[in-house]
Amino acid sequence: MVVEGAGRDLCTLRFVTAGIDGWRHGYDSPADGGITIRDLAFQTGGAGTDGSDFIGGTGVAAIFDPDTPALSQCHNLDRVLFQGYGDQRYNYWSRLTYVKDMPAGLSWSDVIGYGKAFQPLAGDAHVNEATRSSFFRKSVNCTVVGYNYGWTFGYLDKTSGNSIESVWLDYCQAYEGGGLIYAHNDLAGYMPPNYLITGCGWQGKGPCVDLHRIQNVRVSDGLFVTDRYTNPRSVISLSDCQDVCVDSNEFFTIPDADDGQHHGAVTSNVTGVSVTGSITEAIRIIGSTVTNWASWNEVFAVADDVNPRQVFEEQTFVHGVGTFVNAIVTDSSNVQSFQSVFGQINSDTLTGAVDRNGRVTVDAAVDVVVPATGSGHITFPVKPGTAGAFFHSIPRVLLSARTSGSTTATAAPSVGSISTSGFDVVIPGATSGETWTIQWAASGR
Fold first, then answer.
1. CA–CA dist 386, 347 (Å, integer)
2. Deepest in the core among 12, 14, 23, 232, taking most CB within 10 A?
3. Is residue 190 domain-shared with residue 230, that is, in the same domain?
4. For the segment 96-105, what is each residue's pLDDT rounded down to a tens digit?
5. All residues at 6 or more sequence positions from 330 whose CB lies less than 8 Å from its CB, including other chains
6. Alpha-carbon torsion, ordered 337, 213, 299, 271, to 10 deg
7. Domain housing 400
8. Residue 189 domain-assigned?
9. What number is the average pLDDT over the span 149-169?
């Protein structure tokens, strides 16, 4: 079925009965063919100026026959607008689209939908559900305003087997609501792959991206703005996900000053990326820019149930005058690979790095006052905010340089006993009380 507007501008269909859907495909019986809608505006609303709401149903709803063989293109929307008629404070759709059991081939471009003006709705905009295999859902240059989530994906009525796979959001936006995308999968022994979120923009309460048991995920080149809100939440929430790369995104927080609109007065309790779950694997967070003008808990948080060396981060840039309640990194288990922890240590003499295998290298220059025993001790730095050790096994330690005005030492300083928290420096013949500057380097896991 093809429904197409005519003329230079969008052809408008206005629905004047509250609660009805705009267009239904496959409701009398599940559809065994596709639907294409182009160049149409779906409006809902009566007078809608007396302070009472006029709420439409779903703008476009489609239910497909689960037993239909996969089609190359099942669901196409191109230049489609959803909005309330007249005053959008009172006239709005309760849901923009609903798609169930689409076999394959959803392709949307330039789809725009508005909810209730100045008051985000509790419902979601584009709702996708499946009880069978479903592949290839791509939205390009689409915008949602005023709904809880822009796109949601539900895995229904199954205990195993594949379901919704290959979800692509390219240059899509979600504003004035909760989040951009929500996908929670609880199917046993199965993790849907290929979620690509590229060049998207978001402003809301969060989480912006909320994923559970999804694999092969890429979130890149996005601008994510946390709204003024005080309840704890994350911008990106990853629970039991695998093979995820969060690359080259900006996390931005609105300043605390109230703008007199509906956002609220403060922004606090924010976490940039939170990672939880015992089956989590291969999470990479690369090239993030964090602009904090309010109060964050932390930029990255890793839960205790995440296995060692499954989260890797590097090249994070943090600026703004906002505060961090905990630290830039909260890694309770102290076993993840975070580069940015070194930038949090207030020392001009310390440098460090973490490689992709989780090996930590730290070097510093430290003044050691020689005790009467002739053997001093150097303590390794700890992770800011958690006081956790960098090393979880005994590292290799080298003394690369040492200087002193001592004339009594009979041999060069050497490394004595080593633990995960520090090491002894042996200086044979040195005078008790004199100071040695020790340049050292340690490497290990």
1. 17
2. 23
3. yes
4. 999 999 888 8
5. 271, 297, 298, 300, 301, 302, 385, 386
6. -150
7. 360-444
8. yes
9. 83
